[in-house]
Amino acid sequence: MRHVHKSVDGATINVGVVDALEDLSAIREPGCAAVIWRRQPLPRFQGWIDRLAPAQLPTARLILRADAIPDAVQQVCDAAGMSEGPERTWLVDDIAALGAVFGRLMTAPFLRLRLDVIETNACRKFHIDSVTARLVCTYRGTGTQYGISTDGAEPTRVFTVPTGAPAVLRGTRWPGDPPSSLLHRSPPIEGTSETRLLLVFDPIMDPEDDC
After folding, report:
1. Residue 159 in 3-state DSSP?
2. Measured distance CA(158)–CA(126) in Å, rounded
3. Which of 31, 134, 140, 177 has its CA 20 to 30 A from that of 120?
4. Is the Cα torsion angle 97, 98, 99, 101 positive or negative in sign?
């Protein structure tokens, strides 16, 4: 694993950069605010997902066990009218793999899965999520943006997670270390005609408590 130390106004962002899915476990290292699996998008998949009409992109809000993810995502893709083929199979398998690894990493019996199709400014304000940690992956469009807050102010320098690169970010409920000053947001895209497809996983210990 490599760590990227980015100095911003005299402060340092400690972001881990890894080359394998399982290495997202680096989020557990002391002081690590986020970990990015900096993989390259598959050209064939990226061209396919970028060409789809927004109405054919899957949307979902589900709480489920990791082993139920493949069937659930298949159903969501069917509901969106997404055509079957190797690219769709890759997408379903990738979401399932990310969920399985994240669930084990967080020792969570359940996960909240979100698939959002975003065409406007969603969550454009910099923030830290009220979770222990969150996995995000932007399959289409501009990736999640992040930066460091100095004295509670918005970041003055902004970095962007590459499209297709999964990232795990600590939230305010992360145990042990003090809260991170690393903030993130959805990129502002209103008026650009851009459509994003965003995957989010949150750990859920008890679905009844999350209602």
Report:
1. strand
2. 10
3. 134
4. positive
Dmax (CA) of the chain? 50
pLDDT at 44 over 80: yes
d(CA 176, CA 163): 31
99 or 206: which leads in pLDDT: 99
User: Is it the case that residue 6 has pLDDT exceeding 50?
Assistant: no
Q: What does the block give as tokens for 174?
A: 């992360």
Angstrom CA distances, 88 to 56, 85, 153, stand at 11, 5, 41
Tokens of residue 60, six digits: 């979902």
pLDDT tens, position by position, 123-154: 668 989 999 999 999 999 999 999 988 877 88
Average pLDDT over residues 177-194: 84
The length of the chain in residues reads: 211
The CA–CA distances, whole Å, from 189 to 47, 56, 66, 86, 196 equal 20, 20, 31, 29, 9
What's the rounded Cα separation, in Å, for the pair 152 and 155?
9
Answer left, alpha or beta for residue 26, where phi above 0 means left and psi between -120 and 50 means alpha.
alpha
* 62 phi/psi in degrees, rounded to 5: -135, 150
For residue 105 the two structure tokens come to: 């990493």
